[in-house]
């Protein structure tokens, strides 16, 4: 479970096209920061993450992906993404990793 958590962090913080010889590895999370802060943004983030995890980490069973869009003011907002998951060899144990993205491009990871 700890290794799966590390793998998810690595996958989600890697931009598609960043990894040499594996241009499809990663997600588009940081690109989402520059889109309008609407409900469709949260749906697109969930879809992108589920697709990446399903392809690159097939042993991970995602229980939920919670996306919280927090608009502090018109010029600044944050997106909190919490992924609750287990691994296929022991689906009774779940853990959560939370990513906090802000409009300046900063990212913090909690529950590591």
- Overall, the morphology is globular
Which class do the helix and strand fractions yield?
alpha+beta
Helix-strand string: HHHEEEE
Q: Can you tell me the residue ranges where pLDDT is under 50 for at least 5 consecutive residues?
A: none
Alpha-carbon distance between the termini? 11 Å
Number of strands: 4
Which descriptors apply to this entry?
112 residues, alpha+beta, 3 helices, single chain
Describe the structure.
The protein is built from 3 helices and 4 strands, in the order H-H-H-E-E-E-E. A 4-stranded antiparallel sheet has the order 1-2-3-4, with helices on one face. It is globular, with a radius of gyration of 14 Å. The N and C termini lie close together (11 Å). The model has no long low-confidence stretch (mean pLDDT 81).
Q: How do the strands and helices of this protein lay out in sequence?
A:
Blueprint: H1 2-12, H2 29-32, H3 39-56, E1 60-73, E2 76-87, E3 90-102, E4 107-110
Antiparallel strand pairs: 1-2, 2-3, 3-4
Summarize the structure in short.
The chain is α+β, with helices and mostly antiparallel strands.
